[in-house]
Amino acid sequence: MSRFFANSYEYESGSSSSEEDLLSASEEELMSSSSSDNEDLQESQDEESDDSFFDESASESDVDSDDSDGRPYGPDWFKKPEFRKGGATGANRFLKNADYSDSESDDEGKKVVKSAKDKLLDEMRSVHDKIDVAEMTQDFVTVLSELDTMTRLVTRAQQQNYGIPNVFIQVLAQVEDAVAATSQQDITNKAAARAYNTTKQRVRKIARDYEEIIAKYREFPEAFSTEPTEDGAAAQDNFAVSSFALAGKKAADLSSIATATSESDFFTALRIVIDSRGKKGTDHQAQIKTLEELLDIAKSPYETILAYINLISFRFDSSATLSYQPIDQWKASQRDIAKLFDILEAHVGQYHVSEFASRNDFIEDEPQTNEQGVKEILGSVYSFVERLDDEFNKSLLNTDPHSSDFLDRLKDEQSVYNLILRSQLYLEATTTVQADLQKRLARVLIRRLDHIYYKSSKLVAITESKAWRSLRQDSKSEVTPLGEEVNEAYVFKLIDTLHQMLCNQKDGSQRKRAALYQIYFYALNNEFEKAKEMLLSSHVQSSINYSDPPLQILFNRAVVQLGLAAFKLCLIDDCHQILNEVSTSTHLRDILGQQSLQRVANNNAFSNTSVPNEQLCLPFHQHINLDLIDVVFMTCSLLIEVPHMAAFFSGIKVKRIPYSQKSIRRALEHYDKSSFQGPPETLRDRVLYAAKAMQRGDWEVSVSYLNSIPTWSMLPNTEEMLANLTQRVQVESLRTYIFTYKRFYSKLSVEKLCEMFGLASEKVVEVVTTIITDFDMRAALDEGSKYVVFEKGFEITKLEEVAVKLAKETKYVSERLNEKKYVGNTRRQE
């Protein structure tokens, strides 16, 4: 489209100077025509207010499309439609002091097209106005909601490289003042009080990242104003916070230097880039572009290494204020790190990048060679890989786990693991002192374990095979050598080797983390006895309450996985004992690290606020299914507590089992009190109905309810596990039947019991003998073991059973009443 028919246009760089001369000349002629015209034009100019995201753009903003202020703009302004209209609303509009009411009425129906940046600013101003209103009424619920909205808008602005608007700084300072001026005792509404506490913590956390800017705002609030000043100058909506502050002339200078071919110009441009890092208003995108151009003109490996080290650092710096690094930037960083490894591996005998190298103040001069004839460059290759892995985890945490984007993102995990293995081999090749090797490899080995401990041995074998195939053919490792075949034995040996290497470290947290990784892996791969022995021998549980929250989360995950391993082997008693404390927690999702980032920010189960929120969460593919934990625990409770309850109510003295909210006993009590019982709907209902069938001695119905639970498909060897579970249900149904109905029989036929419960006669005799021995029951087997003979006179009647239940309920109610009285007396004393 021609620029003459566009609503507005910007000058081209090549003709800007000549057009400015024409414009200034035309303005002088027009402004000299009448003094009254000057006054009107000045008044219309004073009414303009140009909000912008950049300091430099306050006077260079886009031209308003309607030209309603009457100011002639550009050398071709006379060709605009307003000029061709004629009359007071046409050409005379620009020359005469006329009434503009007609032209304004013509333009009222025109649609104003705003840029995405202006729309974002309008939304922020709207949020600012809502907070103003809510602050006057102490409506902290609205203040908290609008503060979250403002935070999301600022994140959007940063992702689009708009910078940070002044209105955001104003809102932060305003909310800080509102929180400081309000006392929680003055708030009577409970919801507002909770929102006040959350707002206080939230704004303190956010303002910590903008302390310097807020301090400047409090010192010079006029510089942040979005309203026009007294002299009519347009207000600016940014105070040296823009990520494009290094645009324009500096960027052009760097580009011209980067395209030079001499060695001195390469290091000159590189020095300018290095000196600008960390300074306020640095344009990271311009610096990245400059470093990419420097890579093209680099002549020696030393220049290429320096360029890559700084380029990777600037890529990470450009997304430091974002929730995670954009995927395209992340992939670019991954490619740069891989290319850096290529250069270092190709010249491993000449250059080493090491954290322990001496600082070189003159980058033009290559470092001096050491005793091995190698030049050491200050830097850390593994820190780049570590940061890349952290950004990968952040992107997974910020992606919807139920979308295809999450699966696409998860495919990049293999490339991250390849770089971790590559960094380990590089450290082995460049570390000459063997005493320092284990210390330098500790971080790498922990990160390597972190990517494989939660996977089955088959998946780990696939991951290892792909990682080794991505390396050079002559690559080898002395610490974790590659075997002839990557199979299950190699994987278990790898886990043990990594654990042994980390156990020699002085850092206690690394030793504990390595031990928990090993325990989790062994439990996941059906090595219950070994995992249990490792947990008891490590003594981690004795000091876990004083460890960091991430370590506590890992410990809880290892314990849960150990319980699931016991259930896979049908070790019901061990599984119930292990899962009893963890599964009954009211914050199970939190203590397993399976909550969202938003939930961590709002309601943190761990009081240590110094730990980043990302370390308290795990990506979705590492989660342990909570429904599986719940069903496994209730099934174990079913097989243990139903026979126990039958024995207790039949008058047999039994040991007390810990009572929990999620136990089957609690579910059965609630079921008996309910007035209506419908068909099973949830997973817990199926286990509950299985328990009711077991109480009646109908083991087939009980097994059918348990087999209908779809969650079992998440466990390996499901058919074998269900077969073992069925056999255990048969045995426990037999025990429950004997405890419940022994009062009605003088003797029971073993053959009939075998027919009823589908068990062999030897198994029935074994179960009956165990019951008689363990519970001291007044019964015995006859000589041929064909009948179970019960002694009469020791069984309680049905009335006595009801009395026992009533006495139990009475004791429970009296304990609750005493507890309420104690709490009431304590409150009155206070």
UniProtKB/TrEMBL annotation:
Classification lineage: Eukaryota, Fungi, Dikarya, Ascomycota, Saccharomycotina
Protein name (Swiss-Prot/TrEMBL): Eukaryotic translation initiation factor 3 subunit C
Entry superkingdom: Eukaryota
Oligomer status and interactors: Component of the eukaryotic translation initiation factor 3 (eIF-3) complex.
Gene Ontology, cellular component aspect: eukaryotic 43S preinitiation complex; eukaryotic 48S preinitiation complex; eukaryotic translation initiation factor 3 complex; proteasome regulatory particle, lid subcomplex
The keyword Acetylation is annotated on this UniProt entry: no
One Pfam family hit: eIF-3c_N
Gene responsible for this protein: NIP1
PCI domain mapped to chain residues: 620-795
Similarity comment text for this entry: Belongs to the eIF-3 subunit C family.
